[in-house]
Fold this protein.
Amino acid sequence: MGVLQLLISGLANGCVYGLIALGFVLIYKATEAVNFAQGDFMMLGAFVTLGLVNPEYMGIPFWVALPFVFLIMGVLGYLLDLIVLRAVFGQSQVAVIILTIAIGFIIRFVVGVIWGHEPQSLQSPLALGDVRLGSLVLGLADVAVIIVTLLMTVALWQFFQRTKIGLAMQAASQNQMAAYYMGIPVKRVQGMVWALAGIVAAVAGILYASKGSIDPTAGFIGIKAFAAAVIGGFGSLPGALMGGLIVGLIEPFAARYLPPGYSQIAPYALLIAVLLFRPHGLFAQVRAKKV
Amino acid sequence: MRFHFKTSYDQDINLFIDARKAVSYGLLVAAAFALPFVIDDFYLGEATNVLIWAIAGLGLMLLTGQTGQASLGHSAFMALGCYATVLMIEAGVPFLLALPLAGIITGVVGALIAIPALKLHGVYLAIATLALAILADDIIVLLGPWTGGVNGKIAPDIVIFGQALNRWSNPVEWYYVVLVVTIIVTLFYRNLLRAPMGRAFAAVRDSEISAQAMGVDVARTKTIAFGLSCAITGVGGAFMGMFAGAFNNETFNFLLSIQLLMMIVVGGLGFIHGAFLGAVVIAFLPQLLSIVSDTIGGGVAIPGLEAAVFGGILILFLLFEPMGLYGRWLKIKVFLELFPFARKDMFKRQKSYLKTERLR
């Protein structure tokens, strides 16, 4: 494998991490809570698509199924906020962390019961095969992943900067009480953020499933996405994507150049190094809290 | 309803609030010591398991319940405590010395790790410790020559005063060893809460800014809390590994620390009783589930069922009883004591509104 090839596959992996990290950051920006179930959301999104698209289940054409997937995941995200998370509104962050971890366990169990624990592959038009450029072999899925991720990030960034809802989401995250006084329906806005995070997770899931097979434990790559989000700095959308790309790039190069056994450690070692030297990430926007 | 007439300030920090409490806890300890005469070896093993979980849970409770910091990395410290104890025993250190030494080593390592991590916001700490738990798994494999890697290690017998206690052939003696350690840890914990350090923990948990204003060194307090918490959990981990008989990197998977965190939430965050009640739940839930699935599902094992049921229980607790099992007991007790004057909102907590800690 050439260096360039490592680079592309690393970038593609990194984009998936980056998209999951985007989900974390979205929710963190809006509710100052961290959704530890985002990786499992991603896995659920992939399985919902698989259930709709694959011939052995419902066999709906991919592009027809896509809006339904987004709808299902968006509604699920909104309902999760409405039923579960709104009840712990105003409680400590520890409660939310534990709650979302528990939700992750349940998602994993439900997916295992419905679709089984065997790895399955999604019949995705993105997983078409390879492109040959001289000696370079690129997976078409890898290229598609990179492009979709870039589009997604730009769209989200514009959404937060330009649209009324996006601004309302930012306001609600900075000061709930003040936002409420300004006439922003804080709770509904937070529900919308969860719905948006569900949709982003669905995109990440489809891209992940296009690159290979998927099984209910795939949600654990959410942990790598955490590393990505922290490296980029929680609270920064471009930071999350950059963090994802860094983690994605480190993996294949560490696997190639480091002795076996050390390569899995590399992303976490980087995470800890970043926490030591730049505790709020490479794209930080934190200052000490003032009374 | 009993009233306590206070005649000195020291009365506020008495170990037991009155003689009745002292007698009832004394009876509880006596009952724990009498347990081997009542139940058979299988259930005694289960009781030992409950106590081991309770020790580990007390460790995390000190950090999460008292100091308000969530750690998802305590499985790493359980592993450290376990490997340290077993390696020292193999090197010829007597068990009675190896166990506290392992606790101290784990505590020191924990405190060193905590120094950078605790400067961070709560969420960052949770993620950093989660990364640590995952790293621990890989590091155990990399340190194969000492730790046995994926092949793991066989736990040696506990030797106390020349008596070798095997986990399988001496369950009663094993139970007593764990029980005595549990009592020591519990007393230590209780006394810590009465000391200025314990008060500082609670201050940091309730508001870091207020604690700082009152002259509490927040970073130092958190570091000490993390160290002590790791030390206690390390002792619990040592017992857990030796109780399992054999252990490897998988024994101390990062899911273990999540289980531990869930356990103390179900039991009741911030209460010593909570660690014990949570330990009972976590030790008996698998048995209960296997009995239920045997009778209903014809013995078909569903992977992930245990974690899902536990997750479900946890969500229900967080939604309807955030104070856990012990909180529910407190409410029932108050209701009975004040009957008919107890009101629904007596335990209601004030909602806080969120202001970001990221400023732009």
In short: The longest strand of chain A covers residues 130-133. Chain A has one domain: 3-219.
